[in-house]
Design goal:
Elements (H helix, E strand, L loop, with lengths): L2 E2 L2 E2 L4 E5 L7 H7 L4 E5 L3 H11 L2 E2 L7 H4 L12 E7 L8 H11 E14 L1 H14 L19 H8 L2 E16 L6 H7 L4 H10 L5 H15 L3 E3 L5 E15 L13
Parallel strand pairs: 3-4, 3-6, 4-5, 6-7
Antiparallel strand pairs: 1-2, 7-10, 8-10, 9-10
Helix pairs in contact: 5-9
Length: about 270
């Protein structure tokens, strides 16, 4: 029997919170077909598409919805109803992560696990910022709307999770490359990934008339960076990669309680 975090994954209940439906919800559904899987944090049209493919149950709650990002829409989930909750790079998007994590504590069964990841550093941010420097011809200062590295400070995530009432069992750091394209071909998808954090700014520059060629300029800057080997390189397989991308993996558990809410040991 396959187990994760000590849980028997046959007929286990998993809630994937605040993630794109294809990753990891659909990956979890493919790997554990006997599990009951819910996903909260995806756009409705994507949810319908993936639900048809995998059989997972998608709630159709958009992560951009402020009610979800403040934890309010999670009230539809019953107390102590989920064995495992996953939140893969979703915590950074929540307006009120403290409230969301308290809801996670409520929804988890006693002994249930939270599996979460947050970014320590993201190479795409550095790439998009450098592209904007070249497009603007000046130092680009990102707007303070989303900080992907918000929880990179030592113990910040652990303290927040423990404040919700969960017990941190495991916390480690890992690193991997982003593969933007393969076989030596730099396609449109590679460029779109590189400018994802600033795509709306490029569009705003074009619509306002400040720079009608902002996207074209960004495209040229992107290829210039590749030629110069700035932040981007080809590996031995011809894949265009960018590093470093460092993240934290945290596993926490809801402790067992007696009827009075007093914690007690459980083997």
């Amino acid at each position: 029997t396959v187990k994760a975090g000590g849980h028997d994954l046959k007929m286990v209940s998993i809630l994937d919170l605040g993630s794109h439906p294809r990753e990891p919800t659909s990956l979890i559904a493919d790997a554990f077909p006997d599990a009951r899987i819910h996903s909260a944090g995806c756009a409705s049209e994507l949810c319908l598409e993936e639900e048809t493919k995998t059989g997972a149950i998608f709630q159709g709650l958009d992560i951009a919805d402020s009610s979800l990002s403040k934890g309010r829409k999670l009230s539809s989930f019953q107390d102590a109803s989920e064995d495992i909750i996953t939140c893969i790079f979703g915590i950074n998007y929540f307006v009120d992560p403290e409230s969301v994590l308290k809801e996670v504590h409520r929804i988890l069964k006693p002994g249930g696990s939270l599996i979460a990841t947050t970014w320590d550093s993201v190479s795409i941010e550095r790439i998009s910022n450098h592209i904007m420097n070249l497009v603007l011809g000046a130092d680009y200062i990102p707007p303070e709307t989303l900080n992907l590295s918000e929880f990179s400070s030592p113990h910040k995530l652990e303290r927040l999770v423990e404040y919700s009432g969960l017990d941190v069992m495991h916390s480690t750091h890992h690193e991997f490359p982003f593969i933007l394209s393969q076989d030596g071909v730099v396609n449109k998808d590679a460029f779109n990934a590189a400018v994802f954090p600033v795509r709306h700014i490029l569009k705003s520059l074009e619509e306002s008339g400040s720079n009608p060629n902002a996207t074209a300029d960004a495209h040229g800057a992107f290829h210039q960076m590749i030629q110069n080997g700035e932040f981007l390189s080809f590996d031995k397989h011809g894949s265009l990669i960018t590093m470093p991308n460092r993240f934290k993996l945290l596993i926490a558990r809801r402790l067992f309680e007696n009827g009075d809410g007093i914690l007690f040991e459980h083997d």
